[in-house]
Amino acid sequence: xxxxxxxxxxxLFGFSAHSxxxxxxxxxxxxxxxGDSALNFFSEDEIKINxxxxxxxxxxxKKFAIAEFSFLSTFELYEVVQIGYKINDxxxxxxAIEGMITYRKNIKDCYKKQKEILKELIELxxxxxxxxxxxxxxxxxxxxxxxxxxIYFKLSSGDFVGVSCYxxxxxxxxIDHLRLIIRKKEYNKWLDTL
Length: 194
Prior knowledge:
The chain is an alpha+beta fold. The protein is 19% helix and 29% strand. Strands 4, 5, 6, 7, 8, 9, 10 and 11 form an eight-stranded antiparallel β-sheet that branches. 27% of the residues are buried.
């Protein structure tokens, strides 16, 4: 399997981009891929303890849950890894995975890293046009002082790969960060219900 856990996330160790299909299950964040059972990496108790209840409460469709694992010693690059799984799935099959790196009061470095990653994504997904959105206000911050900058690929399968920078205002108690995102189509649709 191809790994997404190097400094540039998507450095391909010399492989030709032509050899890569648009199958997102081929890519990994911290050794974890779409389609894997989360039980291969975490205990059921760890998954349940780290599941973010707020997301389940906010949706009408109680189909998926999100678990977040922070600063684990086993993580090589990412400070936080999130997984999305179906609530009633006893195998905890992963439908989405995100890796995050913080940029404390240093959003310019986040944008720089985002551009580097974009170059690699363009090589990987030559048949899919990147959608480079303008910097926009984050809807969570009612003050209008927090921003997000998203670049993503919506693949022919409907699956989604993207990289985003989150620039939070001083009033919001969040840390600026970069987020590498890999999601199955069904999960991405569910996110629209949040």
